[in-house]
Amino acid sequence: MIPQPKFDxxxxxxxxxxxxxxxxxxxxxxxxxxxxxxNKESFTCPKCRGxxxxxxGEEVRHMxxxxxxxxxxxxxxxxxxxxxxxxxxxxxxxxxxISGILWDEENLFSSKSxxxxxxxxxxxxxxxxxxx
Length: 132
Ligand SMILES: [Zn+2]
Fold this sequence. Notes:
It is a single chain. By secondary structure, the chain is mostly beta strands. Helix content is 14%, strand content 43%. It is built from one helix and seven strands, in the order βββββββα. Strand 2 (35-38) and strand 3 form a beta hairpin. The longest helix is centred in the last third of the chain and has 19 residues, at 112-130. The mean pLDDT is 93. Bound molecules: zinc ion (ZN).
């Protein structure tokens, strides 16, 4: 059976993506002032080299990536005997319809508030994973 897409052609949707972004901590030597005082003279903080913070690694953050109108729906459906998952992907006018980004159905939402809600939940789940 051919799976039915959740969204329709021409529908306006919001796309969520996840990126690896740098994590920074405030400098504890200069309290992020970027300089330290030695005998009342100001020097660039040797710990953070004047940046006020330093890189502590990467984290996965979900975020709003785009919004636009659905211009193309691609359904890849397999017969049961191949035991492969079906996929439904969408292309938006804002990110390219003839050639462009293919958005998985699970990353599209019919409203900005639904997308933001999903972002909060997904980011929270990552924070819980990170703290293990
Ligand atoms: Zn510093």
